[in-house]
């Protein structure tokens, strides 16, 4: 990645219906065009988790139109950073890529009350990632 290039991040989890969707939404929202964002799953679900959609709406981010996507080799190859969240051995590894593995609880089957702390942990990690990838002092702190 050259210093002037826009960094590209791929978030991967098994179903692409919870953690990776929240992470992609936060990075898209907070990155404001400074980062190219993708998300995918090794075994995508039919729809994004409803409790995840509700939890994100509580912080002003609408992901109701998002759909789970299948993980492809092309998506990994075209990303500078690949962040995995419990996809295990299904995630392809390519030398030269930066990989991060975020240990986060799985929101599958959980209600919105259980999803909120996962959402908040993801937001904190995204803010730190943004500082590392594309620092911008104009990124506001979320209140509450």
Q: Count of DSSP E strands?
A: 4
Low-confidence stretches: none
- Overall number of domains: 1
Shape: globular
Largest sheet data: 4 strands, parallel
Structural class by SSE content: alpha/beta
CATH topology: Rossmann fold
Strand content: 5-15%
**Oligomeric composition of the shown chains:** single chain
- By DSSP (H or I, 4+ residues per run), the number of helices equals 4
Q: Which CATH architecture?
A: 3-Layer(aba) Sandwich
Rounded average pLDDT:
89
CATH homologous group name: Response regulator
Describe the overall structure.
The protein has one domain: Response regulator (Rossmann fold). The model has no long low-confidence stretch (mean pLDDT 89). It starts with 7 loop residues before the first strand and ends in an 11-residue tail after the last helix. The chain contains four helices and four strands. It has 144 residues and is an alpha/beta fold. α1 crosses α4 and α2 packs across α4. It is globular.
Secondary-structure blueprint:
Blueprint: E1 8-13, H1 19-31, E2 36-41, H2 50-58, H3 73-77, E3 81-84, E4 98-101, H4 112-133
Parallel strand pairs: 1-2, 1-3, 3-4
Helix pairs in contact: 1-4, 2-4
Keywords:
four-stranded parallel beta sheet; alpha/beta; 144 residues; 4 helices; Rossmann fold
Summed up:
This protein has four helices and four strands. With 144 residues, it is of the alpha/beta class. It has a single domain, classed as 3-Layer(aba) Sandwich (Rossmann fold).
